[in-house]
Specification:
Number of strands: 0
CATH architecture of one domain: Orthogonal Bundle
CATH superfamily of one domain: MetI-like
Shape: globular
Helix content: over 70%
Oligomer: single chain
Largest sheet: none
Strand content: under 5%
């Protein structure tokens, strides 16, 4: 039954990917400016604009360009960068692990903060701990990540002459420095998601703890830890999983600014540079990879949802 459920979800994802591919192909061409003019100005080519446009394949009708690009993308060919002339898939392959590592650590830190704090806040309702947790959640939702990252870099440098690690260190060169350089960016990136997840965890757990079967568990004399963690949290966490599925794409989107501020050569920073250069194949390729990851994440969330609540399978 679970396999049939996942197969149905996968079939639904295919039209979503096709629609997303059309949007990914169209939106870069709405950016003001002409990439051919930019290339001629920057590199001072002595070629005619129309000749260069024909060489790059930009003189054909948009539907023809889209169908050719989609056919190549299905075969795993995302084209070449207009500026570096390197395969887009190769460029993404070098940068994607950095972005995924940052997004994974941000998600992990968000969960490690949100779930325990949400549980404590719900089990100690209207206490000092609950008040501090709710206030911290509101503060976390109110602070933009780029603003917080800028303050953390600028203010300690002014006051104490200290600044966090920026730039990038390979894991093979120094594993400790490699992991340390991700901690602060991941924490900043995960704060907003942590606050949202904490508030939902608290609200859902409070609702579950008022159910009759929880009162029965208390009446049996079970310990608080067993009642809350075994009987309460498993049912309360189901909507949290759904919210997590929507937070992960936001975390991946937030890596654009964080990677730029902390000097991490990830895929998002690569996309930022490509937008400035109107590098259409790179913009299309990066966005298509991100959309594919979002679809896969939603499938994983659906599968985990079905595991937590077997009724979903039917």
């Amino acid at each position: 039954m679970l396999r049939r459920y996942l197969a149905k979800r996968l079939l639904v994802a295919i039209p979503s990917l096709l629609i997303a591919s059309l949007i990914v192909f169209t939106l870069p061409r709405l950016i003001p400016g002409d990439v051919v003019v930019l290339m001629l100005e920057e590199k001072a080519y002595a070629k005619d604009i129309e000749e260069l446009r024909a060489k790059l394949g930009l003189d054909r009708a948009l539907p023809v360009q889209y169908l050719e690009w989609l056919g190549n993308a299905v075969r795993g060919d995302l084209g070449e960068s207009l500026w570096t002339r390197r395969p887009v898939l190769e460029e993404i392959g070098r940068r994607l692990p950095i972005t995924l590592e940052l997004a994974f650590l941000a998600t992990l830190l968000a969960l490690l903060i949100a779930v325990p704090v949400g549980v404590i806040s719900a089990t100690r309702q209207d206490s000092v701990q609950d008040f501090l947790a709710r206030s911290g959640a509101i503060l976390g939702l109110s602070m933009p990540g780029f603003w917080l990252a800028t303050l953390i870099i600028v203010l300690p440098a002014i006051w104490w002459g200290w600044r966090p690690l920026t730039g990038f260190t390979e894991f093979a060169a120094d594993p400790g420095a490699h992991m340390r350089q991700f901690v602060l960016p991941a924490l900043i990136l995960g704060i907003a998601s942590s606050a949202a997840l904490m508030r939902l965890t608290r609200g859902m757990l409070l609702e579950v703890l008022r159910q009759d079967y929880i009162r029965t568990a208390w009446a049996k004399g079970l310990r608080e830890r067993v009642v809350v963690m075994k009987h309460g949290l498993r049912n309360a966490v189901i909507p949290v999983v759904t919210l997590l599925g929507t937070q992960i794409p936001q975390i991946i989107g937030g890596t654009v600014i964080i990677e730029t501020i902390f000097g991490l050569p990830g895929m998002s920073r690569f996309l930022f540079d490509a937008i400035n250069q109107r590098d259409y194949p790179v913009i299309q390729g990066v966005n298509l990879v991100v959309v594919s990851f979002v679809v896969l994440i939603n499938l994983a969330v659906d599968a985990f949802y079905a595991v937590l609540d077997p009724r979903i399978r039917y």
